[in-house]
Design brief:
heterodimer, A: alpha/beta, TIM Barrel, eight-stranded parallel beta barrel, four-stranded antiparallel β-sheet, B: alpha/beta, Elongation Factor Tu (Ef-tu), domain 3, Rossmann fold, seven-stranded antiparallel β-sheet, 6 helices, 16 strands, globular
Chain lengths: 324, 279
Amino acid sequence: MPTLEVNIAPSHPTGLILKNPVITASGTFGYGTEYAPIYDVNRLGAIAAKAVTLQPRTGNPMPRIVEVPGGMLNAIGLQNVGVEALVREKAPLWAKWDVPVIANVAGASLEEYVTIAELLDGVPGIAALELNISCPNVAHGLDFGTDPDMAGALTQAVSERNSLPLIVKLTPNVTDIRPVAIAVAEAGAHALAIMNTLTGLAIDVEQKCPVLATTTGGLSGPAVRSIALRLVYAVAPLVDVPIIGIGGIGTTEDALMFLMAGATAVQIGTANFYNHRAPLEIIAGLQAYCGKEGLESIQDIVGAALPHQVEAIARSQREQALTT
Amino acid sequence: MSVVQEIAKVVSNEPVTDGLLVIRLHSPEIARQCQPAQFVHVRCGDGIDPLLLRPFSMLTVDRAAGTLDILYQVVGHGTEILKNRRPGEKILQLGPLGKTFSTPPNPGNLLMVGGGIGIAPLVFLAETMIPRGYTVTLLAGARTAARHLPAVFVPPEVEYVLATDDGSAGYHGPVTDLIADYYLWSDAVYICGPWPMLTSIDAAYQARSWGWHSKKPIQVSLENQMGCAMGVCLGCVVTTPRGYQRVCRDGPVFALSELHQEIASRPGHASQSSHSVGP
């Protein structure tokens, strides 16, 4: 039977081996417990938990979500239980599960990120950290993820104070994502997650005002898929660490696109809302794909569509044609 | 309790009045489990337009036949597409979701107040409670006679009292005017309807009208626009003294006493129903 197993943190001393490359994305799967009535969450490759902040947060006022063509905007405002409650109430549950749970960390300052990272270090039940760097840096006013120096410094500071595999989730709301990706990878990230949501706006024409209470929100869903795919494809040749593709993935075909673009694993986000079993369907679909294509491992197709790979295939086909 | 993603089959999908429709879905696993005020999250179309599912509570279920009925009106893109689904077609849905009403342990008098299609979970509740010896009065408000659920859909044992905004059927005026006549008689009160109706009920409750009794439970079934319906997207929360609560998972049933702040924050759009789905 072909294997779906992947290591998403090969540069980390222990690595982070997943039984399959399908991860549920932060903010779309709660703390994992919520979906347990629908299916056995242990079948997933991993779960990225709802973002955690130093203090509990009540989140933004309503309305917080709005549907748009092919997607949705959300502005939840990091409503969460806070890191202490996470460690006390959620992590012990996760420790009993047979699926790695990744804590997604958000902060308003470098110090806050570091404090959370320290509090999560060595906590049973937490398999890795995912830094959400799409948050505004209160001291600078800019999002951490929009500046390579800030993003790199943050990554380094966290990696020095936490021994877990470290994933950094990048924001697409930049002119060029590549310098940020390179800075983060060089600063010690074991994997990059590409991408977070794109900032968008919806207006209620009858009321003549923005729909969301916070004006703008993060766009997700099939509408953003081609953008995420482009970013993964652009970054993959430039970094040595695995990339986790995120953005509008809802089917096996979508997941395959990201793997071929150079992602080692994928995250399923908004699809968890409109097809609650999407992650399981994709896992089964990848297994079937491997069988159909005669692959020993799903990893054999990672990066297959990247330029050097495409060239290599063309070259070998040419050589084959010449020898026959 | 488990939540099931089930491919339902449309049995029928017809208007029952000018403006109200009932879709009957063959969905045996969900029909077997679901309770009044619980809801299903329905993919109205065939693909990803609209992307998100739409929440609907059940009007009635036939567990033997494996069917459930949903009362709806066309209020936006999702329900416009739903209206055109034909018998035999398949519809993906998730359910049953949310919590049911709590009911007095011993048979007694249940007062139900429904506005518009908010009547649906109350009819289901009445159907469930009558065989157990409870007595039900259902006060139903609507804009006009044509927007009332025909009495044939309501169990015959129910005292079904109508009110219309235009006086075309029953009492001429808001249904909330009728509550005072029944409140003292009742042992528990159940409410589902549009925000303006809730505003009026909350005002009376806060003013301790109707012969107000602090120990008499008043439960409200709410609905909100929803993303996931599983409690993870946090897009359907309402403000309560316990902080934000998720309509999809902590509700949709809440104590009226918890909803004062939320109701006060709502604009009084007559078109907004606590039961109707999002655009």
